[in-house]
Amino acid sequence: MTDDVSHDKRALRAELRERRRICTAKERNDSEVGITANLIELATRTGSTSVAAYLSTTDEPQTRGFLHWASEHNITVLLPISRADGLLDWAPYDGEEENSDLIGMPAPTSEVLGPIAINDVDLIIVPAASVDRSGMRMGWGRGYFDKTLGSMEAKPPVYAVIFDNEYVDVVPTEVHDQPVNGIVTPTGIVTITEHN
């Protein structure tokens, strides 16, 4: 069973990577405008004063416009840095230099705060390959966000940022996969489950 799910995930991730890779510059620009506006709306609607987010890669829906806005509006933003043990350290967003972490993801160069820093945020924004109608999130296969979310005793609302066509009926899931409360896409915000 698990081998079938792993195979299904690999196949779906390959298809989604290719779709993202062939996006045109205009599609990327249009999606960035929508993602930024919708992330701002989500943060405003939730009254967030501190957010855990991430620096997007070239092929991902872009988060930097939102990160700049949050910083200008005195919202504390923490960004992840991958660790060798599979956990995430967190560092404040300062809008300055970026580096690459040990798995090649964009990371801040500010002071590292450690894994428990995320416990103080009131909104979490995560990357995803796809999310289904029940809120199950499929990541890119490294498990960093699943481990982080799975280890938190109390979680604030968690929203995944994806392109519109990545919100699907069902994604293959395994026992360690963590759901999200909703999604942010270029065309809107969908709350799937209310935060408990």
Explain the overall architecture:
The chain is of the alpha/beta class and 196 residues long. It has a single domain, classed as NagB/RpiA/CoA transferase-like (Rossmann fold, 3-Layer(aba) Sandwich). The chain is built from 4 helices and 12 strands, in the order ααβαβββββββαββββ. The protein has a 7-stranded mixed sheet. A 3-stranded mixed sheet has the order 8-7-10, with helices on one face. It has a two-stranded antiparallel sheet with strand order 4-5. A hairpin with a 5-residue loop joins β2 and β3. The radius of gyration is 16 Å and the shape is globular. The protein starts with a helix and ends in a 5-residue tail after the last strand. The model has no long low-confidence stretch (mean pLDDT 90).
Sheet-strand content, in percent, reads 15-25%
Number of strands: 12
Described by the principal axes of the CA atoms, the overall outline is globular
Rg result: 16 Å
SSE run:
HHEHEEEEEEEHEEEE
Number of helix segments? Answer: 4
How many structural domains?
1
Straight-line N-to-C gap: 31 Å
What's the CATH H-level superfamily name?
A: NagB/RpiA/CoA transferase-like
The major sheet is characterized as: 7 strands, mixed
Q: Going across the major beta sheet, what is the strand order?
A: 3-2-1-6-9-11-12
The pLDDT mean sits at 90
For this structure, what is the CATH class? Answer: Alpha Beta
Structural class: alpha/beta
Catalytic activity: (6S)-5-formyl-5,6,7,8-tetrahydrofolate + ATP = (6R)-5,10-methenyltetrahydrofolate + ADP + phosphate
EC number: 6.3.3.2
Protein name: 5-formyltetrahydrofolate cyclo-ligase
Binding site for substrate: 55, 60
